[in-house]
Amino acid sequence: MTIDININLREVEEKIRVAALKAGRDAKDIQLIAVTKTVEPEIIKKAIEYGVKHVGENKVQELLRKYEVIGDQVQWHMIGHLQKNKVKYIIDKVALIHSVDSYDLALEIDKRAKKSGLIMKCLLQVNVSGEETKYGVSREQAKDLLKEISKLHNIHIVGLMTMAPYVEEAKETRACFESLKELSLEIEKMGLHNIQMKYLSMGMSNDFEVAIEEGGTLVRIGSKIFGERNY
Question: At what angle do helices 139-149 and 103-115 cross, to 10 degrees?
């Protein structure tokens, strides 16, 4: 079956619009990030022609391979787990790192950003569901970690990211998204230097509408645009 990326994109955009409307929000405040895991550069280029402006990659080597072909035609997001020794390869290529989950990683990003004369925008990844298979700091650790990161100069935390449990019923993920939103409001009240709660990266192909209803501003969507993946 042929995948029509243009039709898929329009359908996703319409669902974003409807979910935003339902929540009394403006769809313009929600950014679609097309997740291009396993998607080849020529397909990504088609998506760019149809209006995709932000692309998310899970692996550094995949991001670099595709960046060579596509370059700055889109804003790149590092959405997967990031190892300290890989930071140097992407520091000057990505607009946003979604997956800061330790002080050591934040320190390395800060160091590499300083070397490149950049302020690197990042999100703190929070494992709200507490699943052992997921990366991210616990809800309890988040505030203390941000207090430490706030002392660094070349990394700027601009929000939070989470992955909800994968369940058949999207509404079951609602509590997870509610919890992240609640945490972001608590952090905002702390008034930490260099820490902003501008973005909530939450919601994927199976649950993005619920995430939007609960305050998500960055939705990471792959299969709903590019079709089911063959891993």
Answer: 30
